[in-house]
Structure formats: structure tokens, C-alpha cells
Amino acid sequence: MSKVNKVLFVCQECGYESPKWLGKCQGCDSWNTLVEEIRSKDNYQNNRNISSIQATAYSLETIESNEEMRFTTKITEFDRVLGGGIVKGSLVLVGGDPGIGKSTILLQVCKELSNLNILYVTGEESPRQIKLRAERLGVVSSKLLILAETDVFAICQIVTDKKPDIVIIDSIQTMFVDSISSSPGSVAQVRESTAQYMRLAKGQGIPIFIVGHVNKEGAIAGPKVMEHMVDAVLYFEGEKQLSYRILRAVKNRYGSTNEIGVFEMTDTGLKEVVNPSLMFLEGRPQNVSGTCVVCVFEGSRPLLAEVQTLVSQSPFSSPRRMAVGIDYNRVCLLLAVLEKRCGLFFSNFDVYVNVIGGLRLDDPSADLGVAVSLASSIKDFIIPEDTFIIGEVGLAGEVRAVSSIDARISEAYRLGFKKCIIPFQNKPAFSQDDMQIIKVKSVYEAINELC
Question: What confidence tens digit (pLDDT) does each residue in 51-108 have?
Fold first, then answer.
């Protein structure tokens, strides 16, 4: 074998490299995932031809940071997730389940930016298929170029020659570098292809969107280093059976992380949901125990969400615990606190917790609402419809302070809520005569306020 080639065994799950084959990966402990790959040093020499701009060191004071460095797409929810628009020279990874709307939202971006030169590179569909989808979405632009190609170096050469304003790669799992012997979609190909596009974006100052598939666990397929290389990772959430989609910024070097945009999937594409809190609370049941409204923060936006719980007598010796939209271990922790600190025993009951609308609650400020909802279900008392609850719960049963309390109360007041239960340590500056603010120190005190 030539001296410029090197044989490595690469784990297809985590990207761990070994000079010899191993039955068990030492990086992620997976079995039979190491595949032989031949690395060629030619691809590292070819990298020098991608960027025509030579490396230069700049003084921090001479670097401009004006607003002209961003493209605004006029899709408010999309711009919000990106931190205010598309940054020139950025590399953005868009992931999600099949059919969730990744290609749809990018084609709609092409529609809104019809005055810019955009290169849409497709590795999975033919140009005619892209044309059919574009017609359905109403995309009409003479400056939109469609390229059906999977060779990374050929794509980089075309981008260097055409110099488009924006490049879209759909998808990274179909791209390949011919100097790497493994098949497209492998860890080595995905990693090297992403690295080439990163050099292209930074060298030419062109924003590049990369569509990424997900694996069976729901994470973006490919090595974790791919997410480290890109500037932003946008992830589509939501059930395909539901019409609503949530676009979340898992990583963003130019804006807030965990910022979300809410869309509704229609036959003409994705439409923005201007008031997501109202959408999540639509169709709330009346005079029913076990339902509660909480206010969480997603990025820079307060959102009201409905939490429903059902506690029923279990016919089995081992009762069931099920959580949808909230961490299962967090629910078990709250059940333990309710048993130990409030005297509510769930050992003979099945417990089901569900967050309405496909939203996932990662904010610990929803703890108190979930705990009170569980107490409402087991004691069968009704939480008033105009009441919402905020607070983080500790293992001692105490209610701890949360951030941005005024923004949360203002959002709830705007939607007609007249009573809120908040932690005792919080000191809100919000003042409205018709908003009743109740401060509690413990979960037990919050439950007594309502039952």
C-alpha cells in the first residue's frame, strides 16, 4: 500500500479511531461497530485549493460587527432561532426526523430571499423533484440554482466559481470525499465533508446550511465532532401526526441557545405561529382535576404550557410511571418529594404525566406545577382555570426562586390569567390590581392554597 495511505478502524457510532480492529469500541462500548477505512493524505493537500483567501491576522478593533453581516429571511420564527438572521460565513446544521420539515423550511427561506443568489445542492432528489416541491410551496426565483451532485470537491469548486450568497446542502449523509474509501454516510465521510464545507464557509464568507439525518435514538447521525464544527445546530421537534413543529437552537454561536420557533405544517408549507402560548393552551378542559398551567422560558421567550396528570389505582403490584414531554427521572423525584414531605402516597397508583402540544419541558421552573397537578389528581381537587404556577422544587420540599419572573407573569397576564403562585424568594416588580400573586415557601403550602 502507498505510504500516503493509512488504514484505520473507525467506530460508526461515536467516531473512535483505532489502528487495529476491536470487537468492542473503547469510546462508546458498542460491539462490532469498527469498520476499516483507508485515509489518503491527498485530501489534506487539496484543502488548500478550496479557499482563495489567505490567512490573515486582524486587530480586534478593526473587525466590523454591523448588522449588514446578517440576512433576514422575513420568517420571524426562523430569524429568532438563528439570533436575528443568517450570519455571513456561518455553517448551520439542520436536523430532525424524516418528513418533519427540514427541506421545506429551507425552500421557504429560498422563497423569501429570492433577491439573492442561492445554490441548492441535492444529493437525494433529482432537480425535477425539487422543482415539484418548489411549485407546491410557491417558490419562484430566477436566482435559485439547483445542483444534483454528491462529490464534495466538485461542489466546492462550483461554489468558488459561482460565488452564491447562500448554499444549501441536502443532505450531508449523501456527500463523499473521493480520497476516503468508506461509503457516503460513514463517520469518516460525514466528518471530512463537514470539515470541507466549514473551510469553504469561513474562507469565502458564504453561509452554508447542512441538512442532517437522525439515528434511531433521535440524535443527529454522524460523529459528535460534526456538531462541534458547525456554528449552529437547529433541531426540528414534534410528532409527525401533529401539525405543529418546533425548531430549536441546540447550539448557536451567534444567538441564544434553546431558542425556539413554532410552526404549523400545512399543505402549502410551514406557517409561523405568532402566539405559541395561546396555541399550547387551546382546548383546555374545564372543571377537571390534574391539569395545570406552567410558564417556562425557552431561550429569550416565556411560554405557557398545559401539564396534565392522571393518577389511577393500579391493578398490579408494580405500578406504572409514564412521562411524555418531561424527564421521567424528574417525575420520579417529584413523586418522592410528595410522598415524603406532603404525605401523598403513590405506591399503589399508576401515574401518567403529559405535556400538551408536543412541547418538552426542560426548565426546572415547571416542577411546582407538575407537583401540584399530581396532588390535584390524587386528591381530586380542581385548580382554577385562571391560575398558573411557577417554581423549582428541592428535595426538602422547598420552592426555590426562578429567573425572569416579571416576564413570565406579564406573559400570563396578557393571556388572561388573574392568579399566580410563585416562590417566596422572588420579588416581582409586576404591578396590576387584577393580578393576584401568592408566594409560597414549600410544595405543601402551595397545595394548601388550592385545595
Answer: 444 667 888 888 776 655 788 998 999 999 999 899 999 999 999 888 889 999 999 9
Inter-helix orientation angle 443-450/328-342, to 10°: 80
Question: Is the separation of the CB atoms in 415 and 408 below 8 Å?
Answer: no
pTM listed for this prediction: 0.79
